[in-house]
Amino acid sequence: MTSAALDSLQTTRRKCLQSLSAFSLWLLFFEQSRAGAQIEEPMMDSVRTALSSAIANQAPPVPEFRDTESHLAYLRWLGAMSERLKKKEPEWLIRKDFLQTVWYESKRAGLDVALVLGLIQVESNFRKFAVSRVGARGYMQVMPFWARVIGDGDAGKLFQMQTNLRFGCVILRHYLDIERGDLFLGLGRYNGSRGQAAYPDAVLAARNHWLFTSQAATPR
Known about the structure:
Blueprint: H1 3-32, H2 45-56, H3 68-85, H4 92-108, H5 113-124, H6 145-150, H7 161-178, H8 183-191, H9 198-207
Helix pairs in contact: 3-4, 4-7, 5-9, 7-8, 8-9
């Protein structure tokens, strides 16, 4: 092999290694962006009590509505979202229970339902028993320390659908309140990557898939 050909081969090999290295770093961040690695922070007793109270309140098994139109709007939303979720969960009753619970817990926490669904898509891709490398659990990738901070300490309950969705929605609401409603910072804090664009951008992009034009339904 000539010297020129050898130099060309070495240059190509170096570029391939650089590309592979860059891809590996991107893949690592991509995985971490879905880790749900909330950071345990010092919390005032009043805040801890308020969060614990929000967790303790039990939801009714079926949402109730102020009027027929609100109920019909909810049913239209449920039908549309069920179709969109079918590839992730083919079983109708499981989809119905999941979507009903997401809707209720989102509304209960004062959150946009599409935002919560987008967050779930990014965090766990709708896998109930998803576990991240840092130990975050379930649909909304809740860190086990939250079970001690605002629950009864049983981290195993974070795999229960309603418990996981309630914890996740209350935690997200808490972070948004801390950030005065700033979605970019609130989402970043939820993921443990505050100030970085990749995670908020991913959630907000995923939210677009779950938008519904007639989300007028309001629980009583």
